[in-house]
Amino acid sequence: MAPNVPAVKLSNGYEMPIIGLGTWKSKPGEVEEAVKNAIEVGYRHIDCAMVYENEKEVGAAIKAKIDDGTVKREDLFVVSKLWNTFHQVDLVIPTCKKTIEDLGVGYLDLYLIHWPMAYKPGPAWNNRDENGKTIFDLNTDYLQVWHELEKAVDQGLVRSIGVSNFNSQQLDRLINNGRIKPVNNQVECHPYLNQKKLIAFCKERGICVTAYSPLGSPDRPWAKPDDPKLMEDPKLVELAKKHGKSPAQVLLRYQVQRGVIAIPKSVHKERLAQNINIFDFNLSDEDMKLVDSFDCNGRVCHLN
Predict the structure, then answer these.
(1) Where in the sequence is the signal peptide annotated (predicted)?
(2) Other beta carbons within 10 Å of 247
C-alpha cells in the first residue's frame, strides 16, 4: 500500500509532494527502472535536470506508468532545471522545450534555474579554457534568464518557476525585479548544512525550499574515504534505533517536519519504499534540536 504523501502548497496555488525522487547520478540503464519502481511505490514528484543526461529514460518510465494505468499525467509533479550553458536569452525557451520533449510530459510542473551563474555556451556542459578553468559568460545575467522563464509560464510550457542554489540576495533581486515570484529554491540541505537562515528567509517570502542531497550524498563521485559520513553518524544511528527506523528515514522525517521538501535519490526498490514511508512517526522537539546540532556548514556539493 503506497503511503499518502502530503503536499506543500506553493504560493501560486499548485501543490508539490513533500517527498520526491531525485535522479541526479542515476546511471543510464538503471534510471528508467528506478522511476517505474518509484511511481509504483507511491512517488508522484520526480526531480530531473537536463545536465543529468537521463531525461529521455525518465520520460520512458513516466510514459510506461501512464500507459499501464498506474498514474495519469496530472497525478505527477515533474521538475527540471535549466543548465548554466543555456542562460543566453535565445536559448532558454528552446532548452525548456527540449526537456519537455525528452521527458514526454507536455509541460513541466516546475522549472528551475539550476545555478545563478552563466557559462559560455558550447558543446560541453562545462566549457573550459586552456588552463582547465570554467569559462563564464559575464554578459548574461540571471535576471534576463528569469524573464525568459516568465515567458515559459505565459506560453503554458511550465506551471511554476523557481531557482536552485540561490542565496538570499539573489532571491531578493529576483523578487524585486521579476513579474512572477519564484515559488521554490532547491539547495543542498542536510543536518551538516541545515540552511536554517535561508529556509527562514524563504518562508518569510512565501518561497518553499527543496533539500537536495538530504542524505548527505554518500555516493558523490568526489567523496574522499575520510570524509564524514552523515548516515553513519553515531548520534543519528542511535536516534534511528530509538524510533525503530533507518538513519535515512530519520533524515527525511527531519526535513518534512521543518516543512522542507526532500528529494532522496535511490535506484533500489526496497530503499525507494523505505524513503517514502516516513509518515508513521514523529521526531520530538528534543530529537529535532539534536539533529539541528549536527550543523557544521558541511557542504558536500560544489560547482566546479
Answers:
(1) none
(2) 20
Q: Checking phi first, is residue 292 left (phi over 0); if not, alpha (psi -120 to 50) or beta?
A: alpha
CA distance 288 to 277: 19
Neighbours of 35 (CB within 10 A): 27
Residue linked to cell 550543523: 295
- Catalytic site residue 52? yes
40 C-beta neighbours (distance < 10 Å), count: 16
The one catalytic residue in 52, 111, 119, 192 is 52
Q: Could you report the average pLDDT of every consecutive run of 10 residues in the chain (304 residues)?
A: 83 98 83 96 97 95 98 98 97 98 98 96 89 93 98 98 98 97 97 96 98 81 69 94 97 97 93 96 97 85 64
Instruction: Give the amino acid at 110.
Output: L
Cβ atoms 62, 103 nearer than 8 A:
yes
- Residue 178 CA to residue 173 CA, distance in Å, equals 8
Q: What angle do CA 5, 214, 293 make, to 5 degrees?
A: 115
Residues forming the annotated binding site for substrate? 114
In the annotated binding site, the residues are: 114
